[in-house]
Amino acid sequence: MASTTDLMAGILLLLLMASAPATAQKAPLTPSPSPSPAPAPAPHLVNLTHLLSVAGPFSTFLRYLQQTDVISTFQNQVNNTDQGITIFAPTDAAFSSLKKPSLANLTRDQLRSLLLSHALPQYYSLAEFRNLSQRNPVTTFAGGQYTLNFSDASGLVRVDSGWANPRISSSVISTDPVAVYEVKNVLLPVAIFGAAPPPAPAPAPAPDLTKPSDLAPSAGEAGGSSSPRSANSPDGSSSCRVDAGTVGYFLLALVGEMMLRL
């Protein structure tokens, strides 16, 4: 009985001794690493083709941009640069009203340069045009020969290409990095079309029909009066004095003859 008890005690002691080193060698707990921060979302890129197709009457402008592949140049500026872009988009009516000069005779390169001259390779809000106007002329996407001049009068911004000087009629979008502004004229560049013709002279004012004409007959003449005005006196007073003198002369002669008969 005692040997069995001693045997059990020995086994328990061996178990305790075997488990002690394992407990002592157990690695300490370490805090789990914190998760890395999520990457910042990529900025929303404006699709210029979609914007111009739905934001206003710019179908003609967009068609020319696509035909010359200028739309790809503009879109690349939006997607891959930090400067952004500012586009002046003529309306469909601006193109339809353009008679002379016509765009029909332009080469592909000339048409491409004309379209490139409708944009600046940097984003500008409306408020920034006041400072931009002090840097005139401003080079466009088309290069050094293709410039625009700006003026800002109490927030009314005008864009001058040499042939046209339209005001910015509305802001289609103005959120960095894209600004698109509507204009009512095509910005024809001097580098392609030469100097603009001088403005036509103002028409002569219409005659004021409410004032009597110098050639109109007088009231007496209109009524058929038989006594014409004297050439020396417009109002006929000299003629009246001559008639009165003649009558007086005959009266005196008559009185004198009567006195001689008495």
TrEMBL record:
SMART domains named in the record: FAS1
Biased composition (Low complexity): 216-231
Alphabetical list of Pfam families matching this protein: Fasciclin (PF02469)
Highest taxon, organism lineage: Eukaryota
GO CC terms, sorted: plasma membrane; side of membrane
GO biological process: plant-type secondary cell wall biogenesis
Coiled-coil segments: none
PROSITE patterns, A to Z: FAS1 (PS50213)
Keyword Signal: yes
Topology of this chain in the membrane: Lipid-anchor; GPI-anchor
First and last residue of the signal peptide: 1-24
Domain FAS1: 45-187
Predominant cellular place of this UniProt entry's protein: membrane
PANTHER family: FASCICLIN-LIKE ARABINOGALACTAN PROTEIN, FASCICLIN-LIKE ARABINOGALACTAN PROTEIN 7
Functional summary from the UniProt entry: May be a cell surface adhesion protein.
Protein's name according to its UniProt entry: FAS1 domain-containing protein
Annotated organism of origin: Colocasia esculenta
